[in-house]
Amino acid sequence: MSATPGSAAGARLVVLGSASLAEGFSLIGAEGYPDADQATVEQVLADLWASGDAALVLLEGHLARGEGEWLRRLRNEGGHIVVTELPPLSAPNDYAPAVDDVVRTVLGADALKGVTN
Asked: What pLDDT, on a 0 to 100 scale, did the predictor assign at position 72?
């Protein structure tokens, strides 16, 4: 499946992850990249930056925690491309966003006690 153009309030909606996740989002008009790997993430992010388009990029957890140059750069710079993480479809209750570690570091180990995902 190739990516299809999507739009969310003038911005592109781009989803990279498992086939079921990407294809599901493509049903609502997102650009889906099924079974994406880290190389695909890097290429898509580089292309988005080069295009100058505003975009919301949703990455499945294993891709969001990659170490790619473009992923790191866009997360650190902010701006017209927002990159965020989605829980895996196969285990949504096991999802622990990376921000949880930051909150615990800043506010203490019990900061999220009793909070459910």
From this structure: 92
Q: How far apart are CA 25 and CA 22, in angstroms?
A: 5
* Architecture of the domain defined by 12-86: 3-Layer(aba) Sandwich (3.40)
pLDDT in tens, 58-107: 999 889 888 899 999 998 887 899 898 887 667 666 666 665 565 666 66
Give pTM, 2 decimals: 0.72
b/e for 13-43, b at 16 or more Cβ within 10 A?
bbbbbbeebbbbbbeeebbbbbebeeeebee
Domain boundaries, the chain: 12-86, 89-117
Instruction: Answer whether residue 17 shows pLDDT above 60.
Output: yes
What does residue 67 show for φ and ψ, rounded to 5 degrees? -115, 20
